[in-house]
Specification:
It is a single chain. This protein has helices spanning 115-132, 190-193, 196-205, 235-248, 297-311, 328-334, 347-359, 375-382, 399-406, 420-432; strands at 4-12, 28-29, 36-37, 40-41, 47-50, 56-59, 67-75, 79-91, 142-144, 154-161, 167-172, 179-181, 212-220, 223-230, 251-256, 262-265, 273-278, 281-286, 318-322, 339-344, 365-369, 388-391, 412-417, 435-443, 453-460. It is an alpha/beta fold. Strands 1, 2, 3, 4, 5, 6, 7 and 8 form an eight-stranded mixed beta sheet that branches. An eight-stranded mixed beta sheet has the order 9-24-25-23-22-19-20-21, sandwiched between helices. Strand 10 (154-161) and strand 11 form a beta hairpin. Helix 8 packs across helix 9 (399-406) and helix 9 (399-406) packs parallel to helix 10 (420-432). It is globular, with a radius of gyration of 24 Å. The two termini are 34 Å apart. Residues 1-22 have low confidence and may be disordered. The structure holds S-adenosylmethionine. S-adenosylmethionine binds at residues 292, 294, 323-325, 328-329, 344-346, 349, 371-373, 392-394.
C-alpha cells in the first residue's frame, strides 16, 4: 500500500490528525536523522518500520508510506513500541479523527485512516492470515461496508470512583486498565451518544456511585435502554435512576447484586427488538440484555443479504445454523422455505430463537441447545443431515466443529468469523478435508477499529 502524499514541513506531533493525546514518556527519543518510513500496518493497526540496526518498531497512529520521527515508549527484546514524535511526510490517506478522544480511548485504532484505507488494510489482514495457512482466495473478497460512524448499537461503559471521589464513566484507555472519561463517541448510534453527558450528571447526583459497576447501552427498535450493573441495593439511588430514565425517555434495568446478579426492570420492560429483511420480508428479532446481537445493523443486513445470495437455499434445503444466537441468520435463511435447525449454546437464547421463529410464523425453524466445543454434541447435530451449514462462532473459532465437518459430506459451508486468525486455522482444516474456498467477503462491522468480520464460502469437490 504505497500512499505517500504531499510533503509537509516538519512539525510537532501534538494536535494533528490523531497524533496528539499521548502523554507516555518516551524511553528513547530518536535524533532528527533517525526518521523511519512506515512499511505497512500491523494487524492491530500500528505502523511497522525498521531502525537502521534492523530492529522492528510498532508505531501508534502512523500510516503506510509516512516518514516519522518516532519516540519509543516501550522496549522489548525483538521490537520496540513507539509513538510519533514528529510527522515528516504524511500519507494522503490520513484524515482528521472525528472523535476528540481518539488516541487516548482504547475503543478505536484507525480513525486517522480514510475509510477506503481501513478496508484495504482489513482485506490485507485476511489474506495474510490465510497465507500463513498456505490458503489462497479464488478472487478478491467483496467488501460489505456502511457508514463508518454512528453505527454501534450496543456498548458497555465502565464506572469508577477514584481515591479523590472523582466519578468516571467511559472506556478503557488505550493499552491500560485505566478508565478514560468519555463525553463523545462518534461510533455509537446518535441516540446512545446523546446519553453520555446526561449519564455523567446522573452519576454525579447519586448518593452511592461506588455501587455502580458498569452501564450497558443498548439501542433497539424500542428505543434506548440502559442496563446498570448495580452491585448493592440503594433505595435512594433506585428512585434517582427511575427519575433519570423517565426524564430521558429511556428504558432502565439493574443487574442487581454482587454475585449471581438478577435483572430487574426499573422502568416498564421494553420489548428489545430489531428488524432484518430477508428477500423483501420483514423479520423481527427480540433479545434480552446479555444476549449476543451484531453491533452494526447495516452491515448485519449486508451480511444476511450476502449469505442468502451465496447459499441460495431452496425449499428442499436443510440448513444447519451453528452458533445461532437469537436467530439472526436462522430466520433469514428460513424465509426461503427449507428446514432450518438453529443451534446455540445459551439456553436462554435458544428459547428466544424459538420464540422469534414463532413470532415470524416460521414453523420450519427448530431451535436446539448444544455446546459446540463437545465432540459428542457436535456429532449429534451433524446427524441431522444438513445440506448446508452456516457457522458464526465467537473469537475462539470452531475447532471441534470444523474437525467434524472436514470429514463430512455437507456440500456447502458458510463460515462467518470475527477473528481472522481462528478462521484461517479452521479453514485450513476444512481444506485438508477436501473443501475449497469459493467466495470471500470482508464485512466492515467494526469501522474505525482494527477488528474485522470475514465470510468464507466452502464447497466440496471440484
Ligand atoms: C458471534 S455470535 C453469532 C450469533 C448469531 N449467528 C448472530 O448472527 O447474531 C456467537 C454465538 O455463539 C454462541 N456460543 C458461544 N459459545 C458456544 C458454544 N460452545 N456452543 C454453542 N454456542 C456457543 C454465543 O452464545 C453466541 O450467540
Amino acid at each position: 500500500m504505497a500512499m505517500l502524499g504531499r510533503r509537509r514541513a516538519a512539525r510537532p506531533a501534538s494536535g494533528t490528525s490523531g497524533l496528539h493525546q499521548r502523554d507516555k514518556a518516551p524511553v528513547r527519543e530518536f535524533a532528527d536523522g533517525d526518521s523511519v518510513v512506515i512499511e505497512r500496518l500491523a494487524h492491530d493497526g500500528r505502523g511497522v518500520a525498521h531502525r537502521t540496526d534492523g530492529k522492528a518498531l510498532f508505531i501508534e497512529r502512523a500510516l503506510p508510506g509516512e516518514r516519522v520521527l518516532p519516540a519509543v515508549h516501550r522496549q522489548r527484546k525483538r521490537y520496540d513500541e513507539a509513538h510519533v514524535r514528529e510527522l515528516i511526510e504524511t500519507s494522503d490517506q490520513r484524515v482528521e479523527p472525528a472523535c476528540r478522544h481518539f488516541g487516548q480511548c482504547g475503543g478505536c485504532d484507525l480513525q486517522h485512516f480514510a475509510d477506503a484505507g481501513q478496508r484495504q488494510h482489513k482485506l490485507a489482514v485476511l489474506g495474510e492470515h490465510l497465507a500463513r495457512e498456505a490458503l489462497t482466495l479464488p478472487a478478491a473478497p467483496e467488501v460489505l461496508a456502511a457508514d463508518g460512524h454512528g453505527y454501534r448499537r450496543r456498548a458497555r461503559l465502565g464506572v469508577k470512583v477514584d481515591a479523590q471521589g472523582g466519578i468516571h464513566l467511559g472506556f478503557r484507555a488505550k493499552g491500560s486498565h485505566h478508565l478514560l472519561d468519555i463525553h463523545q463517541c462518534t461510533i455509537l448510534v446518535p441516540r446512545l451518544t446523546a446519553l453520555l453527558a446526561p449519564m455523567h450528571h446522573q452519576l454525579a447526583a447519586l448518593e452511592a456511585p461506588r455501587h455502580v459497576g458498569h452501564i450497558e447501552l443498548i439501542d433497539s427498535d424500542a428505543g434506548a435502554t440502559l442496563v446498570v450493573r448495580q452491585l448493592r441495593e440503594h433505595a435512594g439511588d433506585r428512585v434517582r435512576w427511575q427519575t433519570f430514565a423517565a426524564a430521558q425517555g429511556v428504558s432502565l434495568a439493574w443487574w442487581l447484586g454482587r454475585d449471581a446478579a438478577q435483572l430487574e426492570w426499573l422502568s416498564a420492560e421494553p420489548e428489545l427488538r430489531y428488524r432484518i429483511v430477508a428477500d423483501g420480508r420483514d423479520v423481527t428479532l427480540t433479545f434480552a440484555p446479555g444476549d449476543f446481537v451484531q453491533v452494526n445493523a447495516t452491515v448485519n443486513q449486508r451480511l444476511i443479504d450476502t449469505a442468502l445470495t451465496w447459499l441460495a437455499p431452496d425449499p428442499a434445503a436443510r440448513v444447519l445454523d451453528l452458533y445461532a444466537g437469537v436467530g439472526n441468520l436462522s430466520l433469514a435463511l428460513a424465509c426461503r422455505g427449507g428446514e432450518v435447525l438453529g443451534v446455540e449454546g445459551s439456553p436462554a437464547m435458544v428459547g428466544r430463537l424459538a420464540a422469534n421463529a414463532r413470532r415470524n410464523d416460521l414453523g420450519n425453524v427448530e431451535a436446539r441447545q448444544a455446546d459446540l466445543t463437545q465432540v459428542a454434541e457436535v456429532c449429534e447435530v451433524l446427524d441431522w443431515a444438513p445440506s448446508l451449514v452456516v457457522l458464526d462462532p465467537p473469537r475462539d473459532g470452531a475447532d471441534i466443529v470444523c474437525t467434524q465437518l472436514a470429514g463430512s459430506a455437507v456440500p456447502q459451508l458458510l463460515y462467518i468469523a470475527c477473528d481472522p486468525a481462528t478462521l484461517a486455522r479452521d479453514a485450513a482444516r476444512l481444506v485438508q478435508g477436501g473443501y475449497r474456498i469459493t467466495r470471500a467477503a470482508v464485512a466492515d462491522m467494526f469501522a474505525q477499529t482494527a477488528h474485522l468480520e470475514a465470510m468464507l464460502l466452502f464447497e466440496r469437490g471440484g
